[in-house]
Please model this.
Amino acid sequence: MSPLDVLLWVAFPYAAFAVFVVGHIWRYRYDKFGWTTRSSQTYENRLLRWGSPMFHLGILFVLAGHVVGLLIPAEWLDAIGIDEHIYHIGATVLGSAAALLTIAGLIILIHRRRSIGPVFLATTRMDKTMYVFLGATILFGTAATVMFQVLGPGYEYRGTVSPWLRSLIFLQPQPELMAGVPLAFQLHVLCATALFALWPFTRLVHVFSAPVGYFFRPYIVYRSRDDNRSNRPPRRGWEPVATPQDAKKAAKARR
Model:
């Protein structure tokens, strides 16, 4: 095991994770108005209507496959009846379909950003950087799948990449597991790690956004038409908004 292995498979992942966590905290605290997808739907909708669902649906299946393949030990799957052969077929067929759907959606989205003038002008440098690393991560992962799992003899990454990742999670890093991994898999992992480091500073932060507060916010009353309001005190956060007519009525009542 060389110092380069320690740098690539221990120091770099931990540094990327630290930037990922601290970067999101910093972004949320100091750039809440920038915490957005920077939607460009108003500029063009036809290509977006096709590319966005394809990309998002495909990437969700890709992430689900990575969770199963990398975080769940093979012994656990064997215990529920999913042996190596069944897993290999499922991962290859479903993974290839998800990858093709993701790549097709990404191509449409990139073509849209390059060919539609207003959308291109709204694209920042960080957007372009994000697209480079995102595209490289997907392409290297797809290339590794095609070369080894579809056309090749197959590669058992659950015996190397998966335990390496779990060793990082449990703070017992084993960089030697990645030393003999094929180059395509290594490049896929490195690009994905770099993408996680860039994540907090790009539009990808919208992944962690959900309009939960919308369901609990009080109604906004612009003008009340109820002249006989209840004498019951209003709930906190639901105080009625006074109108000019209300002010006149209150003034008359005080006279």
The radius of gyration is 26 Å. The longest helix spans residues 84-115. The chain has a mean pLDDT of 86.
